[in-house]
Specification:
This protein has eleven helices and ten strands. Strands 1, 6, 7, 8, 9 and 10 form a six-stranded mixed beta sheet that branches. It has a two-stranded antiparallel sheet with strand order 2-3. It has a two-stranded antiparallel ribbon with strand order 4-5. The two termini are 24 Å apart.
């Protein structure tokens, strides 16, 4: 944090803030569940697996849910408030809002915050009563879905302000990439099997799109196809790069299927059979059902932020969030 503060205070404004860091507290693989999901729904089995078991009850040094603080609250704090020394001669610590630097961005550039979600973000594991995910057995999927909710709501609130005062909040995910996140669980041999499975769903997608002479087989193979596997982490950044560089006027705000009402958009990294990356769009799942929860969650985040914000140079005190609310 200190290095970040020293870097930020050198610049008159911040035009882009990409919130990318995150953790998943995986502990083991449920092999029975893995075989079941891979047989029943093979694409989802290598896209949004449900068979990774995760630690629960992990608490950070600040008394908060560890995964929740790492994936969400830490990013929220960066957006809201960054502690810096404005002048070396000051005896007390003064505070400077990063929001001020975002607002200071020149009008032609505008300012935008890009939140990194996941294709595994799921409302199925979101529990408003356990919003810090201290008890959740799926803290990763839950915190990523909370990112979907708050970034969408923050952008809606920003659009209600004059254009010169807007800080846009945009949502991206990297698709499915091969990283070392799960290496401790699977080892090098199973990691190669994982890569094979990733490429297999891409190949089947290509085959199903080209094979027009075997309609019945085409229908069966198409069910195994997936565009959500860029595999290479560098290609997984295409959505965040697109949201960083594209003019705001050309960024789609809503996603709509046939016969469905429009829903907030979430941009993701995709690829074709040849591995050419592209930007895809999906909707924020169950937004209509959880829109009110986004406001409640923002209120809780702000209250917790205020509780941890030092006053008059007094360092923040650690504590359980429920005691600070």
């Amino acid at each position: 944090m200190q290095n970040f503060e020293e870097s930020v205070c050198r610049y008159p404004y911040v035009s882009h803030l990409i919130l990318n860091a995150g953790v998943g507290s995986f502990c083991a693989i449920d092999w029975i569940g893995a075989f079941k999901q891979l047989i029943v729904e093979p694409v989802n089995g290598v896209t949004a697996p449900k068979y990774y078991t995760q630690h629960s009850g992990e608490i950070s040094i600040d008394g908060l849910g560890w995964v929740w603080q790492s994936n969400l609250f830490g990013h929220y704090v960066l957006v809201r408030h960054i502690q810096v020394r404005r002048e070396p001669c000051l005896t007390n610590v003064q505070y400077r809002s990063l929001e001020h630097l975002l607002h200071a961005s020149p009008p032609p550039l505008g300012s935008r915050v890009i939140w990194s979600s996941s294709i595994e973000a799921s409302p199925d594991y979101f529990d408003p009563d356990d919003w810090q995910n201290k008890k959740s057995a799926h803290s990763y999927e839950s915190t990523k879905y909370q990112i979907d909710l708050i970034s969408t709501r923050l952008d809606q609130l920003a659009l209600q302000k004059p254009a010169c005062q807007r800080i846009r909040h945009l949502l991206s995910h990297p698709g499915v990439c091969s990283t070392n996140v799960a290496n401790a669980l699977i080892g090098p041999v199973l990691n190669l099997c994982k890569l094979f499975a990733f490429y297999l769903v891409c190949i089947l997608k290509f085959y199903s799109s080209r094979n027009r002479r075997l309609p019945h087989m085409h229908k069966q193979v198409r069910l195994l196809g997936s565009p959500n596997h860029p595999i290479d982490p560098l290609k997984g950044a295409v959505a965040a790069v697109h949201l960083s560089l594209a003019p705001l006027a050309f960024i789609t705000l809503f996603y709509q299927n046939l016969n469905d009402s429009p829903r907030p958009s979430k941009f993701g990294a995709e690829s074709d059979w040849w591995g050419n990356e592209r930007v895809g769009v999906m909707d924020v799942k169950k937004w209509g059902e959880n829109e009110k929860e986004s406001d409640i969650l923002l209120s809780k985040l702000d209250a917790l932020y205020q509780a941890f914000s030092p006053a008059n140079g007094v360092p923040p005190k650690s504590g359980i969030a429920s005691e600070l609310m």
